Amino acid sequence: MAVVNIRRDVDDKFYRYRMPLLTTKIEGKGNGIKTVIPNMSDVARALSRPPTYTTKFFGCELGAQTTFDEKNDRYIVNGQHDANRLRELLDVFIDKFVLCKSCKNPETELIVQKLGRTEEIIRDCKACGERTDIDMRYRLTTFIVKNPPVKIKKGKNKNTGDAAGGVGGADSTVERGESPKQDGAESDDELTKKIKAEAAVLNTDTALAKEDWSADTSAEAVKQRTAKALEGNLAAMVINGGDDEGSDDDAHSPYAQLGKWIEENPDGDAKARSIAIYKKAEELGIEKKHKTITVLVQALFTADIIKEIGNYGALFVKMVNSEKHQKALLGGVERFFGFSHPDKIAEVPKVLMAFYQIDILDEEVVTQWGTHVSKKYVDKDTSKKVRKASEPFLKWLAEADDDDDDDDE
User: Fold this and answer.
1) Which residues share a beta bridge with 67?
2) Do the record's keywords include Protein biosynthesis (predicted)?
């Protein structure tokens, strides 16, 4: 499924707020022709709005009748309407009913409140804290007032993923012991066996972690330093983890610049390229920032990620040096599988194992991540799917820990 930025004016593939590309299907003919929107629920869920709101908005703007069949997940606009036209209208809906008027962040919640004898609709922004009003002249506001969003309380083992509630999201916790039911995926036992087998042969070479990465990157210099690094003659460079409260959503941010640079410079030996990437991050002043790790996972890896982790392991060994960096790494994994390679989500356990084997993921960090769904890096639905897929690795980790405890007795 194609995925686009919620703010389509933001030309940044590392923008963390994403949604499925709206699709349409024309049914019927003559006076009975209608436009069905097959993935309206998915789009609405990404926006944390009920699918009835977006569908009704299309009807209001196009002067067409709309039909909602929530039980069967069918949302229809009467007449024949081009997908691009509906996407343009969706941008208008997002601007008027989703984005915070102050910070332009989509993490808002609609609140209907009384104002004397009338009602008003407020966007409550969870990002900046501002409350901004909705222009009540839009026809959709009447529908919202009559069908206010339902505030669903979040709690353990309660499903809060119903987009019709108007607050979006997914389970705040994932039940342990459940197996991810992916189409074409292997069973837990089979996958766990494969993980254990592959763990023995994963490339754990971290020689480049002992190299002066900020030095000259000319071909000759790289060749000389690589040879020395392989002999283990250079001392390690210690990089302190830097806290970073800046935004990575701006297309002109150093994070977006680094991601774009990595994609535009795909060639070269993995070791030499790792040095060049580090030097570029250093040039942008983000070599110590945890958000840089998220960008690396998104920009550096391809569908052949398992092998590539071995090739670029030294780069991550050098740059991942705190719990915050590890969490950013896992956030990158969520985006990699959620946005770029959803068809390969069954490989999540192998990817986690590969990172674990090069000793940059702590057991406590990955276990805590695997049992707590979050919308920090992706929408909660995607977050839940990635964590669900990780369960064979978490199971293996728990069993390995139990074995160690038995050995100690």
Assistant:
1) 76
2) yes
- Amino acid occupying residue 404: D
Task: Collect all residues with Cβ–Cβ distance below 8 Å to 347 and sequence separation of at least 6.
Answer: 305, 306, 337
Q: Is the dihedral of CA 297, 384, 162, 165 positive or negative?
A: negative
3-state secondary structure of 146: helix
285 — alpha (psi -120 to 50), left (phi > 0) or beta?
left
Beta bridge partners, 19, equal 4
Q: Give burial (CB, 10 Å; 0-12/13-18/19+) of 127.
A: middle
Cα 139 to Cα 40, 87, 146: the distances in Å are 20, 19, 12
Amino acid 92 reads: V
User: In angstroms, how far is CA 164 from the centroid of its own chain?
Assistant: 22
Amino acid identity at 291: K
Q: Is the alpha carbon torsion for 208, 210, 211, 212 positive or negative?
A: positive
Tens digit of each residue's pLDDT (9 = 90 or more) over 147-189: 998 764 444 443 333 333 333 333 333 333 343 444 444 444 5
CB 187 within 8 A of CB 401: no
The CA radius of gyration of the chain, in Å to the nearest whole number, is 24
Written as one string, the DSSP assignment of 249-298 is -STTSHHHHHHHHHHH---S-HHHHHHHHHHHHHHTT-TTBHHHHHHHHH
- DSSP conformation class of 22: P
Report long-range pairs for 258-265 (Cβ below 8 Å, ≥24 apart). 258/284, 258/286, 258/292, 258/295, 258/299, 259/13, 259/14, 259/295, 259/298, 259/299, 260/299, 262/295, 262/296, 262/299, 262/300, 263/299
Grouping H, G, I as helix, E, B as strand and the rest as coil, residue 203 is: coil
Token digits of residue 207: 């020689």
How does pLDDT run across 372-389, given as a tens digit for each residue?
A: 888 888 888 889 999 999
Q: What is the pLDDT of residues 186-198, one digit of tens each?
A: 444 555 555 555 5
Angle at 45 between CA 43 and CA 50, to 5 degrees: 95
- Cα 99 to Cα 18, 93, 378: the distances in Å are 13, 9, 17
In 3D space, the residue among 71, 90, 72, 70 whose CA is nearest the CA of residue 81 turns out to be 90
For residue 404, what are its two tokens? 């160690």
- How many residues can be counted in the chain? 409
